[in-house]
Amino acid sequence: MKNILIADDDQNLALLYEQELTDEGYRVDVVHDAQTAIERVKENPPDLLILDIRMPGMDGIEALNHILGINNQLPVILNTAYSNHKDNYLTWSANAYVVKSSDLSKLKTAINDVLTGEEV
């Protein structure tokens, strides 16, 4: 069973992701800020990190840089409501970039592709 860490400050959305991904057979851990995500990656690295960009305090792009400095083999999916960050070269080190939607099929496809080594 693959372990997924979700870092998203929207608690309702994070709960939806947790429920949906648990139903898909993943073990899911949720945090609501970037600093806690960094600490979790240090303590117990997940198989995949789903990282929101806009969060209070440290944003997801800055957190991505810190996290890849800790573990540059950790697959990361940036999951954000804002498509404009996709052109920011600082996001290019993520394995995938998914724009948030009420339809989780794109996120689930990206998760599957990243975890199975498919091209995203």
How would you describe what is shown here?
With 120 residues, this protein is of the alpha/beta class. The protein has one domain (3-116): Response regulator (Rossmann fold), CATH 3.40.50. 38% of the residues lie in helices and 19% in strands. Helix 1 links the parallel strand 1 and strand 2. Helix 2 packs parallel to helix 3 (60-70). The chain is globular.
Summarize the structure.
This protein is α/β, with parallel strands linked by helices and 120 residues long. The protein is built from four helices and five strands. It has helices at 11-23, 34-43, 60-70, 105-116; strands at 3-7, 27-31, 48-51, 76-80, 96-99.
Uncertain regions: pLDDT < 50 for 5+ in a row? Answer: none
CATH architecture: 3-Layer(aba) Sandwich
Q: What is the C-level CATH assignment?
A: Alpha Beta
CATH fold topology: Rossmann fold
CATH superfamily label: Response regulator
Please write the string of helix (H) and strand (E) elements.
Answer: EHEHEHEEH
What spatial form do the alpha-carbon principal axes imply?
A: globular
Overall mean pLDDT score?
Answer: 90
Strand count, sense and barrel status of the largest sheet are: 5 strands, parallel
Q: Tell me the domain tally.
A: 1
Over all CA atoms, what is the radius of gyration?
Answer: 13 Å
Strand order of the largest sheet: 2-1-3-4-5
Protein structure class: alpha/beta
Strand-residue proportion: 15-25%
Number of strands: 5
